[in-house]
């Protein structure tokens, strides 16, 4: 965390003094912690330099004890999680957190209505299973509602013409019962203008913009005179809403798998954790719905088309198939599981795995979506959807 991020919360003179003594907020907190540990049990710290001689803790000249205590209180409110009651969380869920539709009714049903603000959702699947189509659909649906979307395209799969095609289909559906159906000549420009696209070539080019986005949003306060982050990478006034509504990374595994598999990268796991932490912090601290895609790998001895537990039919094991719940959901679908290993597995709040329909050809556009991780619904539920010209139905 940077000192300048506290401009609106701490006096300018105090910030200058703190910045001269400590290179970052984290170094200040470490030194204060050491000073508190070294202070007498009933004494405490007196003044900015009281801890200077105890345990090698640096002094902070020009900052009195009251200001230091105020700064610590501000940092506690910014960085430390606060206890909240279940009633508060329920009220927030019902009245504050918004749910963004993906444009696919089947996926929305599995996710409990759609993409929730503050939640990181992963969609895993093999090639041509519909991952990118779902990302494009979610982006088009959100942008059609004039909400800002950040689209991180790591594979070169972002297709503006497909976005417009999906938005036009949504506009046609919305006006199907209207008295007049005049075409919206500016629909393409309006929708694409709400989407900012980033194309990083490595994990560092992903982490730096995410860090900058978090810092920019941290400085923005609802109702302030400063402009908020807007579409097309610019800024605009958005009233109480600050920042993008939806962040998409398609795909996260395209960047992370290279550093995890390379023997030249000794910090692969640390980079993976850093990406997951950055995405979750953006989601939770700034009420952004985050959607990422991941590829799949073989799930142990299971093979494509195989079944866990020896059950028949499309539901996995025989007993669970009647409830629509597959025993294979815990380890994967159809012998395949999300990639990036155990270190990445707990990062998403929810996970949906897409697969080919075994009853129909890939050309039919029919795909299968399986809920494999969710705090809202029973995992293992499966629904079919179809990829067509108008989107995902």
Which features would summarize this protein structure in a list?
single chain, 393 residues, alpha/beta, Rossmann fold, 2 domains, nine-stranded mixed beta sheet, two-stranded antiparallel ribbon, 15 strands, 37% helix
Structure description:
The chain has 393 residues and is an alpha/beta fold. The chain has two domains: 3-79, no CATH class; 98-295 and 339-392, Rossmann fold. The protein is 37% helix and 16% strand. It contains 13 helices and 15 strands. The chain has helices at residues 12-21, 25-38, 65-79, 86-95, 105-110, 131-144, 160-174, 187-193, 203-219, 253-261, 268-286, 318-321, 341-344; strands at residues 99-100, 115-116, 120-125, 149-153, 195-198, 228-229, 235-236, 246-250, 289-294, 296-298, 336-338, 350-356, 366-373, 382-388, 391-392.
Topology, pairings included?
Layout: H1 12-21, H2 25-38, H3 65-79, H4 86-95, E1 99-100, H5 105-110, E2 115-116, E3 120-125, H6 131-144, E4 149-153, H7 160-174, H8 187-193, E5 195-198, H9 203-219, E6 228-229, E7 235-236, E8 246-250, H10 253-261, H11 268-286, E9 289-294, E10 296-298, H12 318-321, E11 336-338, H13 341-344, E12 350-356, E13 366-373, E14 382-388, E15 391-392
Parallel strand pairs: 3-9, 3-12, 4-5, 4-8, 8-9
Antiparallel strand pairs: 1-2, 6-7, 10-11, 12-13, 13-14, 14-15
GO molecular function: ATP binding; ATP-dependent DNA damage sensor activity; four-way junction DNA binding; single-stranded DNA binding
Keywords: ATP-binding, DNA damage, DNA recombination, DNA repair, DNA-binding, Nucleotide-binding, Nucleus
Protein name: DNA repair protein rad51d
